[in-house]
Write a structure and sequence with these properties.
Elements (H helix, E strand, L loop, with lengths): L2 E5 L5 H8 L9 H10 L3 E8 L2 E10 L5 E9 L8 H15 L4 E7 L3 H9 L3 E12 L15 E3 L1 H10 L8 E4 L2 E4 L2 H7 L4 E6 L5 E12 L2 E10 L2 H17 L4 E6 L1 H7 L13 E7 L5
Parallel strand pairs: 4-5, 12-13
Antiparallel strand pairs: 1-2, 2-3, 3-4, 5-14, 6-13, 6-14, 7-10, 8-9, 10-11, 11-12
Helix pairs in contact: 1-2
């Protein structure tokens, strides 16, 4: 049986949908995103075939006017896993990334997805960042009422960059997460990442920034997902922020709220009383590779 990889077209759309039917209980985002990938001149979507059957897919996308690229949507069809197909597709995407001059190739996965981590490590990626992660679903749990003494200040990516420059202990890594994406904590990176997000900071009486948090809304298939990022150096402020974010998700009538947390917030989240045990020690992982040097 022959196997080969090639760039996909809209003629392959039906096979893409069939491949994704059993992924995430039929709620995979790829069938919706596939046409967008094909229309992007900075993206290349690769499929691996057993004879004429599509059995694995993946996408490379370069971020415009940067040397950053992403490995996205790496999938293998049921009944064809544990054959190394994901690695074959990933290595092809790395070659494409090199052709695009990519120096920072990123790949996000969950710490619970051992197969995905194995692919990343086997292709030469290294772990670049790790953030806490959990979800809540409506009806949202009981939580304390936000304090009237804490007044978050609306900010913007430019001001956030200045804050992180002055307070690097808030975000100690070189990247910043929001909604399953990361970008650099540079002025340009934060502007790209937070272009459609709301950003707040909490400042004490001395002007010290105790916390920053962000929100973005994602709609897909009539489902609203409120995504939040929070970094804090004060536990009581963190708890207050969590209450505010849950209130915000409720006001949006979001079906679920997804949280990405800095290291201190991750530690404190276990004491909130409403985070499911399934998210204990769960992380969203950012892997990185420089294809030009590979």
């Amino acid at each position: 049986m022959s196997n080969d990889t090639r760039e996909l077209t809209m003629d392959d759309y039906d096979q893409v949908k069939i491949l994704c039917e059993t992924i995430w209980e039929g709620n995979d985002y790829i069938p919706e995103t596939f046409p967008v990938w094909l229309s992007n001149p900075l993206a290349r979507t690769i499929g691996l075939f057993e004879t004429d059957e599509l059995v694995a897919i993946g996408n490379f996308e370069k971020i415009s006017e940067t040397n950053i690229g992403w490995v996205q949507g790496l999938r293998v069809k049921d009944g064809h896993r544990e054959k190394g197909y994901a690695t074959v597709v990933a290595k092809k995407l790395i070659e494409i990334a090199k052709d695009f001059g990519t120096q920072h190739l990123w790949y996000v996965t969950s710490s619970r997805n051992e197969a995905s981590m194995k692919v990343a490590e086997g292709c030469g990626f290294h772990l670049a960042d790790s953030v806490g992660y959990f979800r809540l679903y409506k009806p949202y749990p009981f939580h304390p009422k936000p304090s009237e003494n804490i007044i978050p200040l609306k900010t913007n990516p430019d001001r956030l960059f200045e804050t992180l420059t002055l307070r690097p202990e808030l975000v100690e890594s070189k990247t910043f997460p929001l909604a399953w994406h990361f970008d650099f904590t540079t002025r340009e990176g934060l502007t790209r990442l937070l272009d459609d997000a709301d950003v707040w900071s909490v400042v004490d009486d001395t002007g010290y920034v105790q916390a920053i948090y962000c929100h973005a809304l994602r709609d897909r298939n009539e489902e609203k997902t409120a995504t939040f990022t929070v970094f804090s150096t004060d536990r009581s402020v963190f708890i207050d922020i969590m209450s505010r974010m849950i209130d915000h998700a409720e006001s949006l009538d979001a079906d679920r709220a997804v949280f990405f947390l800095g290291p201190r917030a991750t530690e404190w989240s276990s004491g909130l009383g409403y985070v499911s045990d399934e998210y204990t020690d769960r992380r969203e992982l950012l892997f990185e590779l420089n294809p030009v040097e590979k």
